[in-house]
Amino acid sequence: MNYTMSRDKNIISFQAENKAAPYTFDINTAIFYGTSGKPIKQWPTGLGKWVEIAGPEIGSNVVYLMRNIRKNTSAYIRFHYDKPTLEEMATLSTLFRIADKLQSIGYAMQNQDDTDPYSLEYINKYFKVFARYIKETERPSIYNFMRENAKNIWMAENHLVLNAHLTQDMVDRMWESRACYPAEYTSHVAYYLSRGLYEFYEVEPKTGRYSNNDGASQMFYSIKRYFDYCQKTNTKPEKENFFQSYINVRRLYETNKIRFDTETLTNHFAKHPELAFENENFTVILPRTREAFQDEARQQNNCVYTYYFEDVLNGKTLVVFIRRKDNPEKSYVTCEIQDGRIIQYRGVNNSSPGEEAENFRKIYQQHLNETWQK
Description:
The protein is of the alpha+beta class. It folds into 3 domains: 3-155, no CATH class; 158-255, no CATH class; 260-371, no CATH class. 46% of the residues lie in helices and 11% in strands. The chain contains 14 helices and 8 strands. The protein has helices spanning 50-54, 58-69, 86-91, 98-111, 124-136, 142-157, 168-176, 186-200, 214-233, 242-255, 257-270, 290-300, 309-313, 355-371, and strands at residues 3-8, 11-16, 23-26, 31-33, 282-285, 318-324, 333-338, 341-346. The strands form 2 sheets. Strands 1-2-3-4 form a 4-stranded antiparallel β-sheet, with no helix packed on it. Helix 9 crosses helix 10.
């Protein structure tokens, strides 16, 4: 379906070639109106026309942003701004599933896809903010919207003030690496850097956009590991004495690793009892130990332990094992689930598990659709 687009002050019109009246979008209220003039809750087809509103790279920018957001837990990238950006809105822990929706929208924009409707109610909050930006900017784009606003708002929200100890380069590095630490401990990270961690790792100020600095990477890796250990051991991070605190919490974890891992996995699965399921031929195993992941990786010859175990432990994803009821000790299918959706379903050597297992996948997914607890 082809559209022509026009703009009259705050109203953007999408005129379809086979419709007598246009779709309209009010950028003051961020509401779409159908050809009858009544508000609608579904995107009209021809989403690619948004490229003409927000700049030629809107689709690819949305896809890139959402892809990176999905690599991190919502806890690491939670923001609470008065004027939320697309990044903030999509990463609030209570709205984390919006990231998937927006990435799909980005693909649709990028590919001029006219086939899939998208619910406006999930992203209305973003468009109200972006609508104001559109009105005030001659050539608006999501990329510039985020780049120009997000960091300054983040600094103000976290009360980060540049001084002799906290330099601009430190703040820039914290901003770029904020997925490495929980947002509520941003002030802790600022304290660590301004009280010697930056110098200890011999971080050098950036000299260009693509400056590479191994010291900064090692520094934020240590910070990430510290908060990971605190989470696993249910220990409150300390602001003073980073190195001593790091050593203490790591020793605590290593000494009690088996118990902490088992407790953490058990708690994750306890939040979703609906993961347990079986039919006459198959049963779903919920792995609760490190050894279970190691055994699955060995039998399946896959990376479920080396690549996914830490993500499961940190609550980023869920992994279950599909086994035959007549031989539950033998690995059959390794299954990854996020937000109630099966996103990976692999047999030995990452192969397709076959028709019988695929039929069970459909049944299991239907069960999750009906019972998943948000």
